[in-house]
Fold this protein.
Amino acid sequence: MEDPNLDDLTLDDGSTIGVVGGGPSGTFFTFFALEFARRVGLKISIDILEAKDFTKPGPAGCNNCGGIVSESLIQVLSTEGIILPSTVIRRGIESYTLHVENGVSVIETPFKEQRIASVYRGAGPKGDADNDQLSFDNYLLELCKENGANVIHERVTEVERAKDGIIIRTKNSFEKKYDFVVGAVGLNKPTCKLFQSICPSYIPPKTSRTYISEFLLGRDAIDEYFGNSMHVFLLNIPNITFGALIPKGKYVTLVLLGTDIDKEIVSRFIQSKDVRNCFPPDIDLEANMPCNCYPMINIQAAKTAYSDRVVLIGDSSSSKLYKNGIGAAYVTAKAAATSAIFHGISSRTFKSSFQPACSDLDKDNTVGKFIFLVTSIIQKSRILKSGLLQMVVKEQKKPAKQRRMSSILWDTFTGSASYRNIFVRFLNPFVIIYLIWNILTAGLIKLKPGKHED
Amino acid sequence: MKINKLGHPYKDGEEIIKQGTVGDCIYVIQEGRVEVIDESGETEIKLAELGSADFFGEMGLFEKDVRSCTVRALGDVTILTIDKKNFYKTIQKDPTLAYRLLEKMSYRLRETNKRLRTI
Ligand SMILES: Cc1cc2nc3c(=O)[nH]c(=O)nc-3n(C[C@H](O)[C@H](O)[C@H](O)COP(=O)(O)OP(=O)(O)OC[C@H]3O[C@@H](n4cnc5c(N)ncnc54)[C@H](O)[C@@H]3O)c2cc1C
C-alpha cells in the first residue's frame, strides 16, 4: 500500500521504531538514532527485537564471528564515547604473526599499544562458564537499554506493510505497528525473505560458507604459544583465502575464510605442519574443541536495501569483504540513523542519504577482491611468499615509518584501512621495487625452513 | 600489560603529556583517572580530573602550538592514542563524529568561565 506524501515521510515526536536484530548493526543504529534524536530534541521510542540471548555460552548466544574488533573501529568507538570494558575484551592484540610455508614473521603494531580487541560475541564457547567475561553483543545491547531502548527477546516471524506503518509479529504473538522498521538481521535467510515482502526491490547479499572453531588450551598455554598475537596463515591450501588463530582468554579461535569451506579443507588446514606448530605438541585438538560452525559471510552486497519506512543495515545490506564486518555494520547503521533522524524515512531519502554509504563499501570491495586475487597468487607461489616474508622480516628492524609492506599487510589483516588506501600504498614504486628485489634474492638464496622470527 | 585492556598503560604519577612539548594526538581514557595540571606558574595548579571515556590533548588537533597542560596518571590508567591524520580522515567522511568533541570542549569552556568568575 502506498503512503501519501512519500517524500515528506519523517520521524516526529512520538514516532516508534522497531529494530529487528540486536547484533552490532541493530545496536549501533539504536545507539546513534537515540543520540541524534537527543541532540535535536526529538522524542522517539525504539524496540529492539532479538531472538538470541547473548548471555548464554555456545550457539544460543553466539553470532558466529572471529571476534576481532578492528583498530579503526576501536578508535572511532572511543571517540564516540563507547569504551569496551576489560570484562568484554578477551585479549588486546598488539601484533600479527604471519605464517607462510617457508617461515614466520611477527608484524608489530605501528603504535606500540594494544588497539585491537578480541571478543566473544556471545558469552563464550559451548559449556564455558567464565562468568567474569561478558559478551560483546550483550554489552552493546545493554548500552542501548541504558540509553532508553526497549529490548524484546523474541523471534520476528512476520512483517507486514500497513497504511501508515509496518506491523511486526513474533513467534509468541507479540504484535505492534511501527512508524519505521530497521532490518539488522545479518545473513539470516528466512528473515531476509520476510523483509522482501515489505521491501520488494530488496535482493539479499550473496554469501559464502566459512568455518570457525574454538580450542580450549588454558590461559598458560595461550600465553606461552600465542601471547597477544593473532596468527595469520597464507598457506597454499585450496579454497582458503585466509586462516587465522585468535587468542581469547583460555581459548583460541580458528577462523577460515574463502570459498565454500568444508570438513576436508578444515582438516587439511588444521593438520598442516605450520598450524600444528602453533599449538602445544601434546594437545589433541579434536578432543579440545568445544564448538565449531560453518557460518555464512557476506561476499557481495544486497541490492536496494531500503523502501518507504524500511531500511536494512549491516550484513543484511553491505559489508566489508572478509574483514571488519563489525566496522562496516557501524558505518551502515550510523548512515541509516543519520538519514532517519535528520533527513527522513522515505525510499527516496534513503537512496540519497543512506545508499552512498553502502555504495562506498561496495566500491571498496571491488578493490578488495583484486587485493585478495593478488594474495591468492602469492599464496600459491613459494618464491613470492619467500620474497614477501623476507621483506617483512627486514622491515621489522627499521623504524615504523619505513615499514611500508608491513603496514600494508597489517591493514589488510586487521581491516583497519580501506582497500583503496591499501592498494594505493602498494603502488608506491619503493614498495614494488623493494618487493621485486626481495623476491629475486629470495629465489637465489634458498631460505632455511622454520622460524624467521624478527 | 594486562591482557584484556586496550591502549597504553601508565602508572600512578606518570606523565602522559607534558606542558610545552609538541604533540598532535588526541587521547581517550579507557580505564582509570588522570589529572590535568597547569605548570606555567611557580606552583602547579590542578585544573581538572578526567575519567573513563574522557579525552584530552584535543587542542593539538586544531593548533600547531605546544601542549597547554600536563596530564598525569592518577593510579593505574590505560590510554588509547588517536592519531590526528586518522581522526581527520574519519571526520571528513562523518562530521557527526566531531559533535562529542565540541560538546566536551564547550563544557570545559563553561567550567573555565565559572572558575574565572570565582577568582
Ligand atoms: C567466519 C567469520 C568471521 C568473522 N570475523 C569477524 C571479525 O573478526 N571481525 C569483524 O569485525 N567481523 C567479522 N565477521 C563479520 C561479522 O560477524 C558481521 O559482519 C557482523 O556480525 C554483522 O553484524 P550484523 O548486526 O549486521 O549481523 P549479525 O551479527 O548477524 O546480527 C543479526 C542479529 O539478528 C538477529 N535476528 C535474525 N533474524 C531474526 C528474527 N527473525 N527475529 C529476531 N532476531 C533476529 C540474530 O539473532 C542476530 O543477533 C566475521 C564473519 C564470519 C562469517
Summary: The longest strand of chain A covers residues 240-248.
